From TrEMBL:
Gene3D superfamilies: Nitrogenase molybdenum iron protein domain (3.40.50.1980). InterPro entries: ABC_Transporter_SBP, ABC_transptr_periplasmic_BD, Vit_B12_bind_prot. This is Iron complex transport system substrate-binding protein. NCBIfam families: TroA_like. Keywords: Signal. Residues 1-19 form the signal peptide. Pfam families: Peripla_BP_2. It comes from Propionivibrio dicarboxylicus. GO terms for biological process: cellular response to iron ion. Transmembrane segments: none annotated. Residues 39-288 form the Fe/B12 periplasmic-binding domain.
Amino acid sequence: MLKFFAVIFFGLLPCLASADVSVRDDSGSVVRLARPAQRIITLAPHLVETVFAAGAGSQLVGTVEYSSFPEEVKKVPRVGGYSRLDLEAVVALKPDLVIAWQSGNSPAHVEKLRQLGLPIYISQPNRIEDIASEIERIGVLAGTTKIASSAAKSFLTRLTGLQTRYGGRPTVRTFYQVWHQPLKTIGRTQIISNVIRMCGGENVFGNLDVMAPEVTVEAVLAANPEVIIASGMGEARPEWLDEWKLRTGLIAAQRQNLFFIPPDLIQRHTPRLLDGAEQLCRHLETARTKRPSGAAR
């Protein structure tokens, strides 16, 4: 009898190893693989971080320019930039899963890869908690569910702590500046708007549906935010952030509430977003302490 069950069990092993896996991506499409992915390509820098968080970093065979974290990813081959992919390089790496960025990659490029028969997972987490869900889903596709589930749980625990600490604090009207020429900010659906709300802030352009709208200096002056936060392009505070000091009518300028957060911590949809969120929450709390006695804002 034992021999019989052993034959049955070991006979099933090949089937178990090749059992298909499937998840629904952020576009609503079902991504189904015949077996967990072993050759993954990511088409945006932030997606690399999510793959590593899900425990699948060793399965990454290609990514795009500016993928810089964690350190190991610097050795991974590049397939162009997220907005100018080298499709031939992608195909040459023979991926069994391509993870694309819905609002960053060219739809035409993604569709071409799909037509070539490559499995595509579309990523677009617009809420902070969506990052945890994405870690779990990539873990399913990569066969690293245990690691991914643990990482997602840790992320949500930390997120809950921030929500509890800052969610009920007095509202701070906030302008988030992506760039200065042209002057760009974030709209309602951008994940940073979600961070601002979590910290007890209000995005002064949160009524705009465009993900990264252009605005005018006059519109910012009219909104008169209490806080201005910028990230720029690198680890250094952008010089143009301090140009708002010349606008002496701005509450943010009057109270010196001009803050910087490194872009990798706040503009990437990754687990490190909570590091940026902590900084943003602290900046808004600093602004609250600068309010004149009895002032609402």
